[in-house]
Design brief:
Blueprint: H1 2-6, H2 11-16, E1 21-24, H3 28-40, E2 44-47, H4 55-58, E3 63-64, H5 67-73, E4 76-79, H6 86-93, E5 101-104, H7 111-117, E6 122-127, E7 137-143, H8 149-159, E8 163-167, H9 173-181, H10 183-200, H11 205-223, H12 229-236, H13 242-252, H14 255-288
Parallel strand pairs: 1-2, 1-4, 2-3, 4-5, 5-6, 7-8
Antiparallel strand pairs: 6-7
Helix pairs in contact: 9-14, 10-11
Amino acid sequence: MREARAERGPSWVSAFLFEPVAVIGLGRIGTSLALALSKEGYRVLASTAHPERHRDVESSGIEILPSEEAASRGSVVVIAVKPKQIMDLADEIRERVRGKLVISLAASLTTEFLEKLMPGARIVRAMPNLALIVGESITALSPGRSAREPDIEVAKGIFSSVGECVVVEEELMDAVTGLSGSGPAYVFMMVEALADAGVRVGLARDLAIRMAAKTLLGASKMVLTGKHPAELRDMVLTPGGVTIAGLHELERRGFRAALMNAVLAAVRRAEELRNELPLSLMREVRWRIH
């Protein structure tokens, strides 16, 4: 396992990754990340308010600890709790993460805010999506001012265990949230709608769902070859055929605009939360850390 890791990046990265990674928060995202890291050979510590619900995590060799101890023993700390829980968690781990890399999955909380909340920690924001459950997330990373180049490489190594990573400017994180963070929900609705149509024309429900999902999966893989989606779409069309009739109806019903507007609405909401949530939390920060 050590040799395999050494092939993935510089020696200092592979050596660092053998230190414990602490995952604090075992919701869907935290649990999936912890299990994937453990499967990859990482030493993983985890913390959750409900350890009785996570026997599957313990059976994978992951040690479940109180958050303070997990933060103390982890060389990297991944925060996978909801934004509104961040204040109480910060009170518990603030002194234990000084000088450490802290990767926050808390949506809408900026690195500037988190650096004030946990002084001395090196902050990197991460926005994965639900597809990390099946190892197919695309995770956007954005470093704070305190983060160093090696921290980005370590974060890439961690999230490469559940898919692909990109590094973006923090000002684009709301856009990432609206497109790829929320994106699986749009796709699930598309699959459901396509499957409903299949049932309407006589297909069994299970078959219709599988055909819809596999169609989207195959089409997505074709897009990732580098061809433009419009070029690929034209490969399906024939003059006067059935597909152009279907596309005409989608255009007539505003399908393209609906998807674009869904992303824009999600981005606007992410921006609102980014502006609202830190303001409400900062009142607590001022008296808790000063």
